[in-house]
Design goal:
The structure holds two protein chains of two kinds. Chain A is built from no helices and ten strands. Chain A is mainly beta. In chain A, strands 2, 4, 5, 8, 9 and 10 form a six-stranded mixed beta sheet that branches. A four-stranded antiparallel beta sheet of chain A has the order 1-3-7-6, with no helix packed on it. The radius of gyration of chain A is 13 Å and the shape is globular. The N and C termini of chain B lie far apart (37 Å). Chain B is mainly beta. In chain B, β3 and β4 form a beta hairpin. The chains are: A mainly beta, B mainly beta. At the A-B interface, β4, β5, β8 and β9 of A face β3, β4, β8 and β9 of B.
Chain lengths: 111, 114
């Protein structure tokens, strides 16, 4: 069975460029999360989608960050005008009844 | 944001000893708790869970204890092995609630010394 997948696995970009990170959740999972993790640190909540409800965007650090979830499945996290402090691993998770299943993450490096 | 900007506390144990990792949770309404293990370069992986109608649950070499009175969760690892070296996160949620959003703790780095 397929788990949560994320693409790309690694992304190197230049400061000021926009990036899009993709998450394919487990089929049928209604909840989808994005987290950010800097080296040696914990999980920083970014955004949470649950079914057709309005997403919880309370963790997005600035208006350069946005995310959408199309058709209740695939999600894209977009970072505009990237900054060096955006460098981190971006993790996606999906769940149906509470237990979250994580993808392998996308390592973003902003030069 | 949640769990932001905090360097991970570290627990160092000798191989073969038992490890106890603690977690304080925040929401008294939370009724479902999960422990995750994150190895270097990977996403967090499920280890064990417990519902609020229990105070103890055992898996293979792992035991989770829940104390709802003081909102405390612990993960016990028996006979710790080098492969147990990882970051461990607890998570809480209200299962079946309107949002059932997972809230993660800060995480603890477990370092197993040979």
């Amino acid at each position: 069975g397929a788990g949560v997948s994320q693409s790309p696995s690694n992304k190197v970009t230049e400061k000021g460029k926009d990036v899009e990170l993709r998450c394919d959740p487990i089929s049928g999972h209604t909840a989808l999360y994005w987290y950010r993790q800097s080296l040696g640190q914990g999980l920083e909540f970014l955004i949470y989608f649950q079914g057709n409800s309005a997403p919880d965007k309370s963790g997005l650090p600035s208006d350069r960050f946005s995310a959408e979830r199309t058709g209740g499945s695939v999600s894209t996290l977009t970072i505009q005008r990237t900054q060096q402090e955006d460098s981190a691993v971006y993790l996606c998770a999906s769940s149906l009844y509470g237990q979250g299943f994580f993808g392998p993450g996308t390592r973003l490096t902003v030069l | 944001g949640e769990s932001v900007g905090l360097h991970l506390p570290t627990l160092s144990v000798q191989e073969g000893d038992n490890s106890i990792i603690n977690c304080a949770y925040s929401n008294s309404a939370s009724d479902y708790f999960i422990w995750y293990k994150q190895e270097s370069g990977k996403g967090p992986q499920f280890i064990i869970d417990i519902r609020s109608n229990m105070d103890k649950r055992q898996g293979q070499r792992v035991t989770v204890l829940l104390n709802k009175t003081v909102k405390h969760l612990s993960l016990q690892i028996a006979a710790t092995q080098p492969g147990d070296s990882a970051v461990y996160f607890c998570a809480e949620t209200v299962a079946g609630g309107a949002t059932n959003k997972l809230i993660f703790g800060t995480g603890t780095l477990l370092a197993v010394q040979p």
